[in-house]
């Protein structure tokens, strides 16, 4: 039998060798795997390092040179798109509720919503309260070098820039050679954006009010673009209380916080707080605010303040022992040489109760809206702007029918027009000056205008009045004008019905003298508004009338009346004032031949009494030879015989008084009341006094026995038709034919016909060709 032990020994050796080989292979594989992992990590790190060098360096350079606010806005936009924000959504829901069910005028809720606004159009930008003693929170700046006027009052900025400009073209109230300030968007209540081009620098000022009006934010974003350093100013003026400033800290990161209170129109004291925040790049240190304070009335401040050279009474603000400073004026300054952003946040300490819109109860205001973060405010600004633009587009697009204008261009121009109109409204409270009635009577008897010789001829109104209205210019006449307000309302009634109702009631009720019925047509109620007004606008004549254009929107309000209780309340509010105003017109503007009162005329017509009842005729006061400036048509020649101008009668004024009385009748019928002066009477009186049968037209009565009707043709002859007084179709067609034959040109309608201009010049009456096509 063969010995197998050598074979077994060989197998054992072979097994050991195989095992050793296997162990070597496993070890080599582990080493290779570890080497591969190390190589992968190195490769990954190499790739990361490569991309950091290739992309990171340029991105770092871009980030370094990109303004901090651009990066911040992009981040806010990304967050809003990806995740949204519950606070922003809640705010937008509040704005939607306000739009669907706006507070009605008159109501306490409406007054609270409209309490704060841009109600001082003569200033570059300021938030102001509509209270007897207003609070102003405004913005201004000036160049450190002192080469340009302080950017505060537009009358200072644009008038100086006009004189320094070298171009010979016309310059608007918004723009000069090196300066422009225009409302890019303004919805009248909650949101607005003002664009200012100041040389190479650009300033964008946005404001946002909460849906209820209890809080607001203002953000100023300055793009310096290489401009010289500016001193940025935030000022606070409280006409009815002291300002309390929190103690300052040592570092420059201190944000000013102010507490104060004011008295609203109902006589309640209400507290508020204001926070001034410098939203600077956190990488760089901020310079501290410089604070000055002094005591001054709001009139003195608006009229005299020069931020470059403060008053001698101004001093660095010091805290008293109780922590309350004795100042009602505070000015905060900070110098900027590069782009900056400053935010102001205001909140009330109290606000309306939740038990109803007319609930007089006040309760503590819970901090929510005023605590918006920078990103939340940015996103709400953007959303409000989109919503306002969308609403304007919906309003303007139907009006484009028949026009060949590009839609985008048309919408942009209409947006600028509406925003500029809303930004040109203000609120004024105080007492007007008027000329002694004996002096006014002497001027009317002479038939020639003369200037007031001294302040001794002026008197002060016995009671305070207020008005909410439009200005004719933010530069040259930044005070309310009732005539301009009426024209604005024909446009704004399509945008904000409650705004329109309040403006009408403001003049008819808030500005009217309850005893005489007189309404001042210019709201120069304060010393500050008179300081920058031309001399003729600083006082009133108690017997001089102006075109009552404030009436034009009332018929449209009646036609579109929804029958709500607030609508009835509005018409009940203005009806007594309208009646007093009609009596004032009849008493002060009647021709000398019209001796009977309206009540006597109505009674005679009702009883069919055949007495000597001359139909009423009306003539404008303020005659200046052959012109009547207060009529609104100073270029229309008003013929009169020497010494007999008191016997004249003007067809345009008759039409205005007839419109006023017709509106009163419509309101009386709407409220279920009898007509005090029936509308039908005015049609007969119009034909009896002003129908020129020879020339088949309505015309002025000159008051001369030999030449009863005025020979001149112009706008005045069209007023019975323009104001809707006529109901005789045949005579209405005569008026239209007169306009086509005498006044129409390829450029529009002339104010005075060519034949009338020639006749006036032959008679020695000068004509300036104002609206001659």
TrEMBL record:
GO function terms (MF aspect): Glc3Man9GlcNAc2 oligosaccharide glucosidase activity
Domain Glycosyl hydrolase family 63 N-terminal: 113-279
Residues covered by the Glycosyl hydrolase family 63 C-terminal domain: 410-771
Its EC number(s): 3.2.1.106
Transmembrane segments: 43-65
One GO term (biological process): protein N-linked glycosylation
Catalytic activity: N(4)-(alpha-D-Glc-(1->2)-alpha-D-Glc-(1->3)-alpha-D-Glc-(1->3)-alpha-D-Man-(1->2)-alpha-D-Man-(1->2)-alpha-D-Man-(1->3)-[alpha-D-Man-(1->2)-alpha-D-Man-(1->3)-[alpha-D-Man-(1->2)-alpha-D-Man-(1->6)]-alpha-D-Man-(1->6)]-beta-D-Man-(1->4)-beta-D-GlcNAc-(1->4)-beta-D-GlcNAc)-L-asparaginyl-[protein] + H2O = N(4)-(alpha-D-Glc-(1->3)-alpha-D-Glc-(1->3)-alpha-D-Man-(1->2)-alpha-D-Man-(1->2)-alpha-D-Man-(1->3)-[alpha-D-Man-(1->2)-alpha-D-Man-(1->3)-[alpha-D-Man-(1->2)-alpha-D-Man-(1->6)]-alpha-D-Man-(1->6)]-beta-D-Man-(1->4)-beta-D-GlcNAc-(1->4)-beta-D-GlcNAc)-L-asparaginyl-[protein] + beta-D-glucose
The organism's place on the tree of life at top rank: Eukaryota
Record-linked InterPro entries: 6-hairpin_glycosidase_sf, 6hp_glycosidase-like_sf, Glyco_hydro_63_C, Glyco_hydro_63N, Glyco_hydro_63N_sf, Glycoside_hydrolase_63
Cellular component, GO annotation: endoplasmic reticulum membrane
Assigned keywords, A-Z: Endoplasmic reticulum, Glycoprotein, Glycosidase, Hydrolase, Membrane, Signal-anchor, Transmembrane, Transmembrane helix
Membrane topology summary: Single-pass type II membrane protein
Compartments, as annotated in UniProt: Endoplasmic reticulum membrane
Function statement: Cleaves the distal alpha 1,2-linked glucose residue from the Glc(3)Man(9)GlcNAc(2) oligosaccharide precursor.
Sequence similarity: Belongs to the glycosyl hydrolase 63 family.
Protein name: Mannosyl-oligosaccharide glucosidase
Organism, as annotated: Trypanosoma rangeli
